[in-house]
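agent> fetching stored inputs for the protoporphyrin IX containing FE docking request
agent> found them:
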Amino acid sequence: MSTEGGHRPETAEIPKAVSGPSSYLDQRIGAGNFIRRNMRKVFPDHWSFLLGEIALYSFIILLLTGTFLTLWFKPSMGHVIYDGPYEPLRGVMMSEAYASSLHISFEVRGGLLIRQIHHWAALLFIAGMMAHMLRVFFTGAYRKPRELNWIIGILLFTLALAEGLTGYSLPDDLLSGAGLRITQGVAISLPLVGTYISFFLFGGEYPGEDVISRFYTLHVLLIPAILVALVTAHMVLMWVQKHSQQPGKGRTNMNVVGGPFFPSFALKAGSYFLFTFGILAALGTFAQINPIWLFGPYTPADISAGSQPDFYMGFLEGSLRIMPAWEINVLGYTLPMSVIIPALLPLGIVMTGLALYPFIEQWVTGDRSEHHVVDRPRNNPHRTSIGMSAITFYGVLWLLGANDELAATFHISLFTITRFGQIAVIVGPILAYIITYRMCLGLQRKDAEVIGHGVESGVIKRLPHGEFIEVHVPPAEDIEAHVRGKTPIPALPGGADGKGIPPKGMRGPLGRLRGRMSRAYGGEKIPLEQPHGDDHGAHAEIGEHEEHAGIGAGGEGRTLDR
Ligand code: HEM
Ligand code: HEM
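agent> prediction call returned; pasting tokens
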């Protein structure tokens, strides 16, 4: 392992694989320096950084498989009589879209495999993105200077949901239709603009003849184009700002510690891509997904019982299902709150809350400094508890999206399940907050104990007066550095100056609220203790156990200034 400060000679460690092509390009477009500099860019390493990569690789696979599907898919609601090889549907009237999806599934070589990979990749893309977003949230990696990348992330997340919804609707089978029916119901419930939005999407009265071709344009052109542009911006920003790093030995807000992009990171990224592709190909081969031929074509008169959307739409479905049937009449118009609230509230709370969080936190703490070393979730207990509350709110809605399945599986009445959901969606987040907060403090105390008293060595000593004690040894160096990398949560100065005037920005009711929130946000202070003399004594006696207590963080490679 070589670790050193920023300014190394440019050529010192440029591998041949880079120097050859870079001097070729240098002679032609003068880009040699640029390439050499970037190939040596240092990347920190942590398993959780893989989550964003999973989203990225699934996105690439979506683009590739989606392009394959466009070669055969016909985005038309024109009617045809099915005469393909799938016997049970022969002679059935259906849309060209549905017939072409059946054609892809049964007649195009590799068609079913690619359709299934596309669908599995869509699920992995959104699941990976959610996990990645939670990683960024819980570690506070969205803080300055990464707020912009966080906002781009929220846009990506919202667009990904829209991309999933439009994709899911394309095959025009009975399940697609159930989703479209809900989409139209929600659109039309919106005051003032609802009818226009619905007519615009469906080209007239529901279901109309145009929705599939309109969704197709959105799904294969508009949304992917914006996604590609935003993902590129996301990556460029991450590259320019350099990735954040976990607290650890030698890591500060002024440097970046890790391996060079080439070859170490590039090779890892390449193999992770192949690994993601392998998993998706295996899922596409062995795990059936969306067998549209079993559901039959969509007709508005048919009801598909037990239909479930893809998992990422579950929270919206759940909020519709648990909402009481409230309506308000205003000037002769009916406002169906039972649809408006579920449509706007979870999306509004989840997306707006997420988008604003970095700015609200900055306002509350008054912290305008740059953070490149991320937090361990336990060290910011209020943030972690807010995150867990949001997950619980989302989770209850998501679960209740399957209230009929739950009722049937557990033999409980639908009414009881729904009532449970209505209570749990309020009580659950509060409980999650309290429990998480206590757990964070507990874990902080555990850290303080590790620093103060060391870790258990497994060695039992008998003292002269007969008492047995377990010898503690200091934690391994890298673990200690990880635990000690705890940045205090800044708070605004409280109180008033000599003349009784509170500081600027903290005057008036809003300012006072800000001050109170700022002091509370830091949470209970649990300092990391200084090592105790006794434990060192014990450690000196059993020096051979020191190694056994530590788990090395592995080769770090290089340190560069930010
Ligand atoms: C980037 C995110 C994307 C997501 C989340 C996504 C999601 C989906 C989903 C869930 C389906 C339904 C699959 C099924 O029938 O089982 C679908 C179908 C489809 N997608 Fe995508 N997709 C994405 C990108 C693309 C792209 C970039 C293209 C084309 C360039 C594309 C083309 C298609 C086509 C043609 C279908 C209909 C095929 C069929 O169902 O038989 N998709 N998509
Ligand atoms: C299309 C979806 C997305 C892709 C492909 C993607 C990809 C990535 C990748 C590969 C990284 C670097 C590795 C890592 O930290 O995991 C990253 C970093 C980042 N992403 Fe995303 N991301 C996506 C969505 C999101 C979302 C939804 C958010 C948050 C709302 C977000 C916020 C961030 C931030 C703040 C960073 C910098 C993290 C740091 O330096 O620690 N991203 N993204």
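agent> quick read of the result: The chain has a mean pLDDT of 88.
agent> awaiting further instructions
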